[in-house]
Amino acid sequence: MLPIAIGGDDAATGLKDTLVEFLRNKGLEVKDYSDTGNIYPDIAVYLAEQIVNGTHERGILLCGTGIGMSISANKVPGIRAALCHDNYSAERARKSNNAQIITLGARVIGPELAKSILTSWLASEFEAGGSAPKVERIQYYDKKFHKHTATGN
Q: Which of 55, 53, 54, 66 lies closest to 7 in space, CA to CA?
């Protein structure tokens, strides 16, 4: 498995550090991209680009609410970033939508819930079945509006 990318802004430094330690204690390799920009859009876009170019398969983005990170990451063609604040949404983001990035709000959830959400998301894989045509349609619109070749990551 490729290293997991993570990035957080100043509102999420504490939670980000907690999650990096949590993931490393699970034996996972983690690359922190928090220093790739002064504001969350820069961090989100840079991390999302690392997913698209194949450096990472999955990424975690954190800010105060997770909303800004989600909006910013989804500007990168080929990215599906999902804001999740519960285990079921995290699981479905991966299983139904093949989301490569999860975003979390450090001012919305606590560290124990964040760990549980990440565990659910990391344990989930895309279930092509009935969701495949929907993800293909997302990719169709991505290509249509971005005029590029979206990756299937």
A: 66
pLDDT score for 115: 98
Q: Which of 63, 69, 90, 93 is catalytic?
A: 63
Q: Confidence band (pLDDT; 50, 70, 90) for 98?
A: very high
CB atoms within 10 A of CB 69: 33
- The pLDDT score that the predictor gives to residue 149 is 47
CA distance 148 to 153: 15
User: In angstroms, how far is CA 13 from the centroid of its own chain?
Assistant: 16
Annotation says 63 is catalytic: yes
- Listed in order, strand segments (DSSP E) in 1-148 are 4-8, 30-32, 59-63, 81-83, 101-105
Largest pairwise CA distance in the chain? 42
133: helix, coil or strand? Answer: helix
Per the CB < 8 A criterion, the answer to whether 43 and 16 are in contact is no
Task: Report pLDDT digits (tens) over 102-138.
Answer: 999 999 999 999 999 999 999 999 887 778 888 888 8
